[in-house]
Specification:
The chain has 413 residues and is α/β, with parallel strands linked by helices. It has 14 helices and 16 strands. The strands form four sheets. Strands 1, 2, 3, 4, 7, 8, 11, 12 and 13 form a nine-stranded mixed sheet that branches. The protein has a three-stranded antiparallel sheet with strand order 14-15-16, with no helix packed on it. Strands 5-6 form a two-stranded antiparallel ribbon. Strand 15 and strand 16 form a beta hairpin. Helix 1 crosses helix 13 and helix 7 packs parallel to helix 11. The longest helix is centred in the middle third of the chain and has 31 residues. The radius of gyration is 20 Å and the shape is globular. The two termini are 40 Å apart. The N terminus is likely disordered.
């Protein structure tokens, strides 16, 4: 039996429940949480001693943590399409903010597969991030997304009262669970805007005012690679009108800018942690916490001044490496708190979710079910991957790379 044959059997072999569609009640609920521009080391459980994320840490430490999780393209539109479809951007074709999934491609995304093949109630909340004109609201049982490329943090009602977008997401999660939590199985995809900046606002990191005192005394050190010598080591063609450098001057050029940017970034993540705490509390109140799998990941990383850059886009660790864990209360006790060294990718999320529901991955999906990495450390599991970035922007050089745990080969073309 070759490796492809083995892998094709994994979803059914590893599904914790029966795969028969006649037994929907035995399928687990699945919640996928996605943060925006969330670098791999900006969580307490990843070893960051500055940030406080107790609710997220509690889940991660009772789950399976992927130490080397990456995205195959570091920009939200492409990465989110890869998460939904299990495909590289070069296959799904989403390389800008305006391109939607075609109808056939949409039906091959993990939520629609779960709905049509396994009877799941499906919901999507927050920043959808794929296309603009054809948001699939009518395909979902619950749709809590604005028809915009990027939601705004500050949202005012007719009385002038402001509600922060992270709180809006929190409210929609609670509404979904109140409606569908006891009528499972369900799959809820939650896509935070945080900790992404507000691009059009000079404040950039617009956190909820209740977090203003958090990290006030933070003394986070400037990265060594943030010095000018690292920026100047790039070729002249790379440095010419580079958008990531322009944004660096807005966020990190001075010490005061740097401190305030890091504080704002952490405060936005703090807001997400509180939402996760409210989520898990509600699951327990409904009596479904023990049958609900929670997966959490970032859509791409984020430079905090490293290499003299801001943003993401380029294939350096701070840009392409993200946090990822899977909390499965039904998993064997020996796997709880396990840390996986194997490379995990955003294209693995869709086949992994399908496997938890007892379904095989769809033909055309290029990722693999991550369950295989903790069933046994597969010697043939990937030890390197291909990275691509084809987003059209005059200040963002296109790139491709081969990335392993020890080396990168980067081509700016």
């Amino acid at each position: 039996m070759n490796r492809n044959t083995i892998l094709s059997c994994i979803p059914l072999a590893l599904a914790p429940f029966t795969s028969s569609c006649d037994h929907k009640e035995t399928r687990p609920n699945i919640i996928f949480l996605l943060t925006d521009d969330h670098r791999y080391d900006a969580m307490g459980y990843t070893g960051n001693s500055y940030i406080k994320t107790p609710n997220i840490d509690r889940l991660a430490e009772r789950g399976i943590i992927f130490r080397n999780a990456y995205v195959t393209t570091a920009i939200s539109c492409a990465s989110r399409a890869s998460i939904l479809s299990g495909q590289y951007a070069s296959r799904h074709g989403i390389n800008d903010f305006n391109t939607d999934f075609t109808d056939p491609a949409l039906m091959k995304t993990y939520p629609l597969i779960l709905k049509n093949q396994a009877g799941y109630k499906i919901g999507f909340i927050g920043k959808y991030g794929v296309g603009l004109e054809k948001h699939p609201a009518d395909r979902y049982d619950y749709w809590g997304c604005e028809k915009v490329i990027q939601p705004r943090y500050e949202n005012y009602d007719s009385t002038g009262k402001m509600t922060h977008y992270t709180d809006i997401v929190n409210g929609r999660i609670q509404e979904f669970l109140s409606t569908y939590g006891s009528n499972g199985p369900f799959c809820l995809s939650v896509s935070f805007k945080a900790p992404h900046v507000e691009d059009s606002d000079p404040r950039q990191f617009i956190y909820n005012k209740r977090y203003s005192e958090y990290y006030y005394d933070l003394n986070y050190p400037r990265p060594e690679s943030g010095s000018d010598k690292y920026w100047k080591s790039f070729p002249e063609e790379f440095r010419f009108m580079n958008e990531a450098r322009r944004r660096w001057t807005m966020r990190f050029e001075t010490d005061s800018q740097f401190r305030e940017s890091v504080r704002g970034y952490y405060r936005l993540i703090q807001g997400v942690d509180d939402v996760v705490g409210n989520l898990t509390k509600r699951l327990d109140e409904l009596g479904i916490g023990k049958n609900t799998i929670i997966i959490m990941m970032g859509d791409n990383g984020f430079f905090l001044g490293e290499h003299g850059l801001a943003g993401k886009w380029f294939p350096y660790e701070e840009s392409v490496r993200v946090p990822l864990f899977i909390y499965n209360p039904l998993e064997k006790e020996k796997n709880k708190g396990r840390r996986i060294k194997s490379i995990a990718l955003n294209i693995d999320i869709a086949p992994t979710i399908l496997a938890f529901a007892g379904l095989k991955k769809e033909p055309g999906m290029q990722g693999e079910p991550l369950q295989n990495t903790w069933k046994e450390e597969d010697a043939e599991w990937r030890n390197r991957f291909f990275y691509e970035h084809r987003f059209q922007h005059p200040g963002l050089p296109k790139s491709e790379a081969v990335i392993s745990l020890n080396y990168k080969y980067i081509n700016y073309y």
